[in-house]
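Why does residue order matter? Because the sequence determines the fold. Keep that principle in mind as you read this record.
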Amino acid sequence: MTEAIGICWINGALVPAEQATISVYDHGLLYGDGIFEGIRFYARKVFKLAEHLERLSMSAQAIALELPYDQQAIEHAVIKVMTAFQEEDGYLRLVVTRGDGPMGLDPRGCHQPNMIIIADRLSMVSAEVRNKGARLMIASTRRLPVDGLDPRIKSLNYLNQILARIEANQAGADEAILLNQMGRVAEGTADNIFVVTKGELLTPPVTEGALEGITRNLIIELACQADIPVRETPLAPYDLYTANECFLTGTGAELIPVAEIDGRRITSCPGPVFEELEKRYQTTIQNLG
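Structure:
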């Protein structure tokens, strides 16, 4: 059995993760009514905390959820959890739920949101997959349309992505790619996707159903610094199959090269553009203030 090392901050109290509790009447549990952020820390330094908290605030505003703590208090809580964690590198999951309320969808009966911050290990793929490249498949499950649930809201309801991930598991793939309602590429189940075609770095715009990922934005910035042409543009499965390189990005994923999509081998894995951006990404981590 794996040793339990997780630590949890819940509404101001720091407890071992396995001892943290929440009411069965919490609307986050009952209806997925809440928001979250996944945050990395390296050598006891939090990666892109300001950007994550800004996105958390925007998600809260979008679903009319009032955060129970101000930004400074949340920052202090994040640092407290990170410091209490027994390892220098780790992953934080910051969750805000609507709170306890009566049965029924109406959120007006929920008067006090709950905030939870968990610190633990997270590895999206094995070291072997990171070295050799991930095997992807395009799921039949479609990404929810933007006019149904805007992907910029990091809500607690990930059933859409979970269904796609089940498809990947059944197909023996490492990750699934979701298409939008028009059949264009949106994102992975827990990551953004990039391809390199004829020396140009391409990624779907958020209007196609992709999360406006913080690591995604960093990779675009690093590509510009490296004089790598980069463009947000709609992509079809054809663009994935015929790419010179392909890789995934995300806070949890970090950077993962892709070796195969639906049985089609990617020309170069890991390719030179990926390797350059991975080098610059690691430098960014090492230079955290």
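The CA atoms of residues 186 and 209 lie 5 Å apart.
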